[in-house]
Amino acid sequence: MRPDVQTCGIANETEDGFFVFVADYDGVALARVEKDLLHLNRVFGLCSFAILENSHTDIMGADGRVEPVGNYNVIGLDKLPFAVCEDAINHTRCDAAFAGHVRHYPQRNRVIRILEKVALKGKETIRPAPKLLKIVKFPCVTCRGYYHSSAHKALISRYFGAVWGYMGRMDGLREVELVMYRTQRKPKV
After folding, report:
1. 78: burial class by Cβ within 10 Å (0-12, 13-18, 19+)?
2. In sequence order, what are the residues at sequence separation of 6 or more whose Cβ sits closer than 8 angstroms to the Cβ of residue 47?
3. pLDDT 10s digits, 32-69
4. Are 110 and 22 in contact (CB under 8 A)?
5. For the chain, the helix, strand and coil percentages under 3-state DSSP, each to the nearest 5
6. Contact 169/48 with Cβ under 8 angstroms?
7. What is the CA angle 138-168-152, rounded to 5?
């Protein structure tokens, strides 16, 4: 079946050939995403992330607490060599199809959706644009001193209203690739 929905995303490759961490989580607890980011901070020294929420449902846990379970995207600002970025992605519990992307497609960059999904016929909105859920920043003492992508920070700040605070070691570059792409309409459950 041909993809019948179009959307736009941000590529994780930077203007100078480095890559920012990105991940796609489907049907998981927000706590899992946050634990993965803490793990990335401890293992790789990554320190700055935006968590975008595509959708969520509140589920009652066994202990009686309400826990959000949903679909989330993560965009980091730390600039990494390609191999380190891929290793970091493989250290998470993100969506298996997303993690296996580079094995199946010739391009090296990954794309995270930032706009709504729109039907090609009729132009109806199939799924709204993601919303900024939170900014996660770890203390500088736990970070490895990577440069941060100014372009990714600017786009996330302007489009989602993110407030990052002081970042240090910004690369000063201004270009980020936006990618229009087609995708499948997910069946309603």
Report:
1. buried
2. 41, 78, 137, 138, 139, 140, 142, 143
3. 999 999 999 999 999 999 999 999 888 887 888 888 89
4. yes
5. 25, 40, 35
6. no
7. 80
